[in-house]
């Protein structure tokens, strides 16, 4: 820890969704561990998520307390039900999501008040707050952007947006190579995010356009990745696209103790000791972990296909289902085949709600991960050295899938073909069984696991003193300090 960093004060302002809040919570611990004064800005109902996570950080904060400041979330002004302060807590309708983004757009003034009061050295604000660049500029404060995704996805989406390769093909399913992007990466028009290929103008596309413009005027971006994972794409992003970026991940690795790993995000729906006990009873690399992040939802028939596929694979599993017993659309739990849980007793564990994901991924009994390819999950899987079944749904998840399957070669696709904003494309149980078997059993699985373990080792080295991510974080702090003084 560097004592002169105490003059440095970073404001972190994450978007109100767990996929954005969790890495920023880790980022706060990372800055604090460098002796930097660190403040997280959020809304009242989201504050406990941060206080719980940062309080559990005994090992890494270097004695620096992370402060949490709240600003009121204007739910009512935006026509949202009272108490809706997190995107994950909304029913999955585009209308409500649009209102949520509208409410988030009203946070500029309260943020400016805090910037005026505290005069921090810099502001790291989420890409969904494009106006944060101007807000910071009013007070002469540099603004950094946090997208929460990989260099690969940033570069690939830039190329797809720029060259529009999906326009020159005859069908949704015909593969094209992403122009200019190194590595001959293939995808299809159906997998390109709807808001890019459909060329529609709505609130979300306007917001994303503003976000791009604000990014150009910002100081740079911070990326939750490590150089050795995607050197070609980190170089491409910086040198060819000319963007200023610092890689400081994998952020999840700042959680070293079980308690820290268990307290990320929402409160877990299973006692962490019970979960570890279950895993302790299993052989190394024998369990597949299945989880689709904090937003994606599947309908009952898809859940049933997953259940049948998992059973048929014969592999032990932990499966996280974002439906509780009391959820409206669950009815009589008819998303599970009759008697499934009893039949799977001891072989499969279903967690309804929220799992302590990193704690599970890091356990030696876990040997593979079925993921929706949200970047946090993907990188957590890599940091745990796991081969993956890729099951992208929306956002930039299809790009992350290509990184895992085509570049890193540590995963196999389950076969989803279509980008869908909320509820995923449908996949049959045979495809699930096949993909799970491919990453868990046999020579090819071992090869993938061994490559993944190599990456996990590099990830660990990247965050140690002198490692690439550690050095980049310090370079960023030093650069901002010298331009500040
Ligand atoms: N997560 C978790 N338990 C769950 C579901 C998700 O801890 O039951 C965490 C996961 O470890 C990751 C984040 O939530 O850090 C999800 O982020 P990601 O980018 O993977 O997906 P998103 O939720 O944004 O789609």
UniProtKB/TrEMBL annotation:
Gene3D superfamilies: Glycogen Phosphorylase B
UniProt record similarity statement: Belongs to the UDP-glycosyltransferase family.
Coiled-coil intervals, chain numbering: none
Keyword set includes Transferase: yes
PANTHER family: GLYCOSYLTRANSFERASE, SCOPOLETIN GLUCOSYLTRANSFERASE-LIKE
Superkingdom of source: Eukaryota
Main enzyme class: transferase
GO molecular function: UDP-glucosyltransferase activity
Pfam families registered for this protein in UniProt: UDPGT (PF00201)
Organism (species): Prunus dulcis
UniProt keyword annotations, A-Z: Glycosyltransferase, Transferase
Sequence intervals crossing the membrane: none
CDD domains: GT1_Gtf-like (cd03784)
Name this polypeptide is given: Glycosyltransferase
EC id: 2.4.1.-
Keyword field contains Heme: no
């Amino acid at each position: 820890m560097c004592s002169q960093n105490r003059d440095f004060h970073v404001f972190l302002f994450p978007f109100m969704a767990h996929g954005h809040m969790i890495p920023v919570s880790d980022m706060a611990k990372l800055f604090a561990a460098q002796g930097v004064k660190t403040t997280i800005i959020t809304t009242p109902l989201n504050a406990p998520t941060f206080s719980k996570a940062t309080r559990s950080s005994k090992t890494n904060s270097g004695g620096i307390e992370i402060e949490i400041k709240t600003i009121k979330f204007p739910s009512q002004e935006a026509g949202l039900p009272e108490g809706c302060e997190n995107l994950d807590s909304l029913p999955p309708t585009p209308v409500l999501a649009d209102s949520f983004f509208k409410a988030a757009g009203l946070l500029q003034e309260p943020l400016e008040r805090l910037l005026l009061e505290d005069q921090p050295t810099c502001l790291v604000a989420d890409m969904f707050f494009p106006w944060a660049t101007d807000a910071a500029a009013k007070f002469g404060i540099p603004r950094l952007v946090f997208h929460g995704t990989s260099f690969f996805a940033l570069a690939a989406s830039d190329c797809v947006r720029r060259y529009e390769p999906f326009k020159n093909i005859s069908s949704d399913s015909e593969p094209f190579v992403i122009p200019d992007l190194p590595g001959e990466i293939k995808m299809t028009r159906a997998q390109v995010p709807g808001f890019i290929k459909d060329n529609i103008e709505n609130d979300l596309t306007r917001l994303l356009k503003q976000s791009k413009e604000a990014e150009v005027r910002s100081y740079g971006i911070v990326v939750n990745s490590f150089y050795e994972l995607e050197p070609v794409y980190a170089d491409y992003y910086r040198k060819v696209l000319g963007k200023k970026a610092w890689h400081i991940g994998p952020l999840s690795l700042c959680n070293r103790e079980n308690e820290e790993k268990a307290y990320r995000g929402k409160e877990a729906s299973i006692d962490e000791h019970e979960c570890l006990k279950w895993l302790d009873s299993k052989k190394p690399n024998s369990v597949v972990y299945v989880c689709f992040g904090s937003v994606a939802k599947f309908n009952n028939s898809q859940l049933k296909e997953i259940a049948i596929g998992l059973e048929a694979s014969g592999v032990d599993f932990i499966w996280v289902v974002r439906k509780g017993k009391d959820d409206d659309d669950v009815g009589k739990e008819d998303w599970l085949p009759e008697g499934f849980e009893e039949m799977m007793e001891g072989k499969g564990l279903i967690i309804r709600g929220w799992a302590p994901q990193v704690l599970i991924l890091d356990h030696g009994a876990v040997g593979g991960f079925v993921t929706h390819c949200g970047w946090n999950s993907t990188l957590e899987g890599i940091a745990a050295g796991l081969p993956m079944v890729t099951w992208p749904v929306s956002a930039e998840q299809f790009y992350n899938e290509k990184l895992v399957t085509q570049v890193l070669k540590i995963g196999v696709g389950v076969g989803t073909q279509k980008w869908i904003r909320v509820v995923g494309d449908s996949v049959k149980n045979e495809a699930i069984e096949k993909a799970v078997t491919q990453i868990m059993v046999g020579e090819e699985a071992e090869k993938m696991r061994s490559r993944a373990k190599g990456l996990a080792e590099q990830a660990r080295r990247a965050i140690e003193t002198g490692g690439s991510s550690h050095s980049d974080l310090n370079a960023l702090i030093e650069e901002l300090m010298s331009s500040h003084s």
